[in-house]
Amino acid sequence: MNIAILSRHPSIYSTKRLLEAAKARGHEARIINHLHCYMNITSEEPTVHYRDEVLDDFDAIVPRVGASVTFYGTAVVRQFETMGVYSLNGSLAISRSRDKLRAMQILSKRGVGLPSTGFAHSMKRSKELIKLIGGAPLVVKLLEGTQGRGVVLAETSKAAQSVIEAFKGLNANLLVQEFIKEAGGSDIRCIVLGDKVVAAMKRQGAEGEFRSNVHLGGKVTPVKISPEERAAAVKASRALGLKFAGVDLLRSTRGPLVMEVNSSPGLQGIESATKKDIASLVIQFLEKNYEPGKKRKRVES
After folding, report:
1. Residue 213, pLDDT above cutoff 60
2. Comparing C-alpha atoms, which of 104, 219, 122, 203 is closest to residue 165?
3. Residue 118 pLDDT more than 80?
4. pTM over 0.70
């Protein structure tokens, strides 16, 4: 196969590993910075251009679209789909996962376990909103935040109101979410590929830190997950239409709760913790699911 890895950062671990894995399995592969692509949108012969060439010879793409460029990145993925190119994750699924509110609503509709979550436009009812999800302590999240940024733990209702008002003063969209105390500042990152969890690790936040993100000092260790946790991760990924995802679970007294679903999960932490070659598994998935000459369905917006 001829594979394009859509990434703005060719030097980061995940991008390099995917490129190495593709070449190691005998495929042609290259990294394409999707922000440098431009498109000819036509019903006759839609094309994607990159610098001074037409990208018309790829069989499959692996999108690594950053959160800050989701709009343009998914437009490029959608154009490749229109051309009949197989995409590891579809443009619609990526868009769903990046909109935290939309993702929560989809997961809720599909019966996926979630922390109690509140959303409102007007803060005139902030007291009622806090009460709706069970009161403090609670977590306030910016919808546009990533990697733990824009996530605040409010220990009291008064503190929660102050944080909410401060965020709304910046004209920011936010979620108010139940704090799962029994999780102890840890979560479970499950890597879902197709209909299987192929790896899982526990992320433990640094002392005094409720966020478990590795770049904030969190530590990762391999973990054995329960059948219930495995089923929840696969169900969440499938609900959003993702074929490759990082599903973050919280262990609670009422079972696994899905905190977030990531359409471009990093590979360094999970490969380091589990010693599994996730990059090669991704390429093997492409090999199994790409069908030469098959007419792809036109993607819906």
Report:
1. no
2. 122
3. yes
4. yes
